[in-house]
Queue: 3 jobs
Job 1
Amino acid sequence: MLCLAAVANGAVFWLKRTGFVDAPQYQRYIEQKSSFRLRDRSDPVWPHARRFQSASLVRLYSLSRFQLAAKAAKYGVVAVLVGLFAWWWWRSGDGARSWRQPLLLLFAASMLIAAVQSWRHYGNVFLIPALRSLAFLAVLSTSARFASINTLGILSKYLIYLVLLQASLLPFELLWGLDVYTGGAFASWFGDRAVGVFLQPTSLGLFAAVALSAFLCCADSSERWKFLAVCVTAVVVAASGSASAMLLFVLVAVHAVLARANLPRGARIAALCSLAGMVLWASPWLTGRPDVMASLLGRVDKIVEVLADARSAGTVLFGDGLGVGSNAAFHWIRYLAGAGASVPALGPYAGSDSTPQSLLTQTGMVGCLAFYALWVQCAIRDRQTRPLLIVLGLASLFANLIEFFPIDVLLAMSLARSSLPRNRLNQCPEGGRARVANQRTWREIPVQRA
């Protein structure tokens, strides 16, 4: 359900980019773009070409009612999942144990306060965008008893299948897709960055890297399948042209190799830090984007803008309201404005490039600190999913994971599982049989059920 909803969420945009849908508009773009005759970014025509690409992106992501319904499929899937989790939470009889975590309670309280703030300041304008954050909180609150390591392993396998699907789409997209994201590892050959069924190249790359981490960490698969997953993910990440995704992929793949080599922890950490520095240093060459570091550092600037533009101390502490400043709110406000409705003006930080920016805007410092404190606590106490939680934590610095479907479901389930009491981390939902894997790493041989 999650994977099908993810495909439905962006399939129409992929079909538009490759000319399978809206062929006249596709052909018009090809003809106009060829008239620029660009050689490189230093060409004087480059600024005009970029403005043309930006206008084309607006037309590309315009939605009909049918396309809007296809994108809304993910809300229905999450609603079904929350119902399933809540039923199991009630059936288990001890689901309330997951709520005995002060940090989880504090984060939930900050989200509810933000919902009240949004209604008080803007009425029901941000009600639809706020559903993304509320859905994340609902999954986080109810999935603890269901999110065993077996369940996460099954989910990670399907996420890898989705990565395989993205790889199968690459030839069509790179050869015939509209080059609206000029730059990337394959740009010198094919002219653009891959997007797949996601909305941005960075989203595709980050999804592939996170899915690989979950697969290596949780899935019970053969070494052949794991090697194939690493190879396919490498191709997808390179095609996305995302520096942050390349960084995460290198860390995930090298960590898998070093863990099997049984090197001391200090040596592994030193090797990973050195490789991370090398990837960042080489990122302009790897991505074909000389200004890529400015893009990465720009996320810090936006966080500073959020704090600088806060209307009061209360806004700094508790945020401006749930849904405000998110990517969903950015597109929702534009949709309402196009329909002639009265909408509030978008701030300079409209649209979110990272999870800290989104949390600071919506829930303030209280919610942001509570969320990351819960994250650190879960990573410390749960050795088995610790590599995945660390990768998700790094990915949150480059994308708003709370509204990044389907990674938001994976994140919520991982945190929910790790927030259980230590002696219940490795119980499976099929009967509560305890497992002894808590003292092992992700390299363990899975314990077979009787």
Note: Residues 243 and 283 are 6 Å apart (CA to CA).
Job 2
Amino acid sequence: MTARDNSRALLDVLTEPLARMGLDLEDVQVSSAGRRKMVRVVIDKDGGICLDDIADATRDVNAVLDSTDAMGEMPYTLEVTSPGVDRPLTQPRHWRRNVDRLVKVSPHEGMAFIGRIRDADDDAATLAIDGTEARWAYTDIAKARIEIEFSRPSSATEPRQPARRRNGPKRSATEAVPADSPGREDKE
């Protein structure tokens, strides 16, 4: 069985158990790693994946693989992960999960452009491009990827708020602490 056949078989076996957990199975990749196979399972969900989701999914995927002959007798290493920010947007749910993010779009016809996703449904996404909003059907888009923003505003329409200090004001090493301050210890 080829790696591609293994991937298809694993997609069939793992989709339903992960869906019961509220997770979408985005991809399964099987590759050789010496005498073992490397099985990479990519999951996602609305609101994003947390470490608990990864741990629960790893446990369930491992149980499914151990209870079926999907991997045969071949030893394997299992990796369960979330999709990276550079993954292509190929499904309506990918667009919906990235509302308010910048995206680079290569349409089937015309020049590539960068816009901000304002809204997405099952058929199209509304993109803000140079101050103008336009609705793009997914069928008109050849390729789309999220653009990484290092100083992305919390909302595309709201200005960024400055970071707040968590532990109150900072004092310099030479600044005196009042004698009646809580926690001050006089050393004699």
Note: The longest strand covers residues 24-33.
Job 3
Amino acid sequence: MIASYAKFTKRYPIFHFSIVILCIFMFFCSGYLLLVDENIWAILGLITPLPLMFLFANASKYKRKYLHG
């Protein structure tokens, strides 16, 4: 899965960038809802981007190692 996502990011960098921006936006909006509105369901928005960030980091490492050029 990491290798296929790394190839995807190499082919479609703008789409990958929009996914990363969406994850960051979701994280900050959920943090705002949790702190200001005290909405406990906002924790899901804080937890959801974590596996995606793990995927992004490992795909970046894979891309740097094997998909150079």
Note: The helical segments are 2-11, 13-35, 43-47, 49-66.
